[in-house]
Amino acid sequence: MRIGLLGAGRIGRIHGGNVAAHSRATLTAVADADGAAAESLAKATNAKVGTIDSILGAKDIDAVVICTPTDMHSDLIEKSVRAGKAVFCEKPVDLSSARIRACLDVVKASNGKLMIGFNRRFDPSFASVRARIAAGEVGKVELVTILSRDPSPPPPSYVARSGGLFRDMMIHDFDMARFLLGEEPVEVHAVGSCLVDKGIGEAGDVDTAAVLLKTATGKIAQISNSRRATYGYDQRIEVHGSKGLLQAGNVHETTVVFAGAKGISKGYASDPALPFFLERYAAAYRAELDAFITSVLDGAPISPSGEDGLKAQLLADAATQASQTGQPVRV
Ligand SMILES: NC(=O)c1ccc[n+]([C@@H]2O[C@H](COP(=O)([O-])OP(=O)(O)OC[C@H]3O[C@@H](n4cnc5c(N)ncnc54)[C@H](O)[C@@H]3O)[C@@H](O)[C@H]2O)c1
Q1: Is 161's pLDDT higher than 90?
Q2: Does residue 160 register a pLDDT over 90?
Q3: Is 50 touching ligand 1 by the criterion CB < 6 Å?
Q4: Cα separation of 99 and 147, whole Å?
Q5: Rounded to an integer, what distance in angstroms lies between the CA atom of residue 236 and that of residue 274?
Q6: How far is the CA of 38 from the centre of ligand 1 (A)?
Q7: Which of 24, 56, 175, 209 is disulfide-compatible with 192, CB 3.0–4.6 A?
């Protein structure tokens, strides 16, 4: 599969490298408004530098990977499917669920192929939890707990354009909750506070939040988010069911554990959790691109789909409203 990459920033460089290393794909061209960013990735991956228009118009490109800022995603998805390209697009599809619906209509009308970058589904541990739920190991799922905390807050200038913590950060956890519950949440409770950075509050957002989701049959998911974790990138899940519990913990820099008997060294200590998403989810980013390439080439269903992007967004909208009004929201 011949692939063009749109946006060679933080996540674009990861996806570009993974495409170039894939045995069934070639990274044909890279486009970025910042010429140096495009040049540097193209050089590292043996690709050409192009523009968005040249990539979308190229007959020798079958698919695009969209890694531009969020406010360009829905327009680029539409242009790409109209140009006959299969599309992998980073999350979120758009900050407006009305805009997402309109975009998905265009994808459908063009008979387009679209995958959304909910990478955590492809984390080896989280994917294993999902597979073991499906195999019936914990019986009927009753409670899902998701702990997701960034090491440090982004600058308030980023926060002001981000759509807010629920749409920008917790969107991954809404997708993970749906993935693990196996049912759609229908009720959303949310609270948020500004405890980490006053500037985030001044930008109109929260940096600490908790959400409860309930499905029609009564299954519950609880999500805990913070823009700060002093001990690394904190990413843990727990699934409690009628027959037992599945837990997936943090990934640490090494597997070495220290045990001591005195002072602050008393007890057990491991190395810090991996610092942030590029390190923690490196394997997941490889696996999601492999799933995209394999599904398109083999004609298999694409997951997570645009519809998954919309459903996570509707939960983010509901949580934003619930936290602002103090009232639960029906979805
Ligand atoms: N799934 C994940 O774990 C994950 C992680 C990080 C970012 N993301 C998403 O990926 C997207 C990009 O985030 P990032 O952190 O890589 O941002 P970034 O700012 O590092 O990269 C964006 C790139 O797009 C380029 N760009 C901007 N406008 C352009 C234009 N008009 N034409 C061509 N190129 C243009 C910029 O020059 C930059 O190189 C965001 O939507 C973000 O939400 C997802």
Answers
A1: no
A2: no
A3: no
A4: 29
A5: 12
A6: 12
A7: 209
Query: Which tokens sit at 94?
Result: 């758009």
Residue nearest to atom 29 of ligand 1 (CA): 33
Residue-wise pLDDT for 64-92, tens only, equals 999 999 999 999 999 999 999 999 999 99
pTM surpassing 0.85? Answer: yes
How would DSSP label each residue in 123-150?
SHHHHHHHHHHHTTTT-SEEEEEEEEE-
For tokens 């913070």, the residue is 226
> Which amino acid would we find at residue 176?
M
Return the closest-CA partner of residue 205 out of 171, 172, 170, 156: 156
pLDDT at 253: 93
With b meaning 16 or more CB within 10 Å and e meaning fewer, what string describes 176-207? bbbbbbebebebbbbebebebbebbbebebbb
* Helix orientation angle between 282-298 and 124-134, rounded to the nearest 10 degrees: 60
How big, in percent rounded to 5, are the helix, strand and coil portions of the chain?
Answer: 40, 25, 30
Q: Look at residue 262 in the predicted model and tell me its pLDDT.
A: 81
Helix, strand or coil, per DSSP, at residue 301: coil
Which residue's C-alpha comes closest to atom 14 of ligand 1?
A: 10
